[in-house]
Give the backbone structure.
Amino acid sequence: MITSKDVRNKRFEKAAFGYKQEEIDEFLNQLEAELDEMERERAEANSKIQVLADKVREYMRDEDALKDALLGAQKQGHQVLNEANEKAEQIIAEAQAKADALEDEAVRQHAEAMEKNREEIAKEKEALIEAQQQVADFKKSLFDMYKSHLELISSMPETFDNETEEETEEKAETAEEIATAVASEVEE
């Protein structure tokens, strides 16, 4: 490749009937200037290319670092998600166990309360039966006493001479009617 230095150092021999030396020098100077400009632009372009290549290499390193970071973040995200799922399952299992224990305790307490209620009902039924029996016994003893009193009253001698036999029979019938009425009430 020809450089501006080559053009500057190039010398031509003089020949008869040749080109004008001033025109050739002027053209060579223009050519040298253009070559200098082109070399400068090429050096600038190479410098820019080098900077861009460095940036590309830097971006590639950054890309690799970003890929590694992204993969690490994904792995960590999966790990955190798995740990959260495990923790959630553990919490759910503990809550279910507590709920089951509370339910079992409630069922047990309910069964105990129901058994106590049944026992109290049975005791109350027995007390009711006993009270009914006592009432029946009391009515019977009262009726027996009333009956014996009526018999005593009926067997009392009559002191009234004026009373006729008919009146005495009426009183006896009245006492018997009362006794029959009381007996039927007791039976009911």
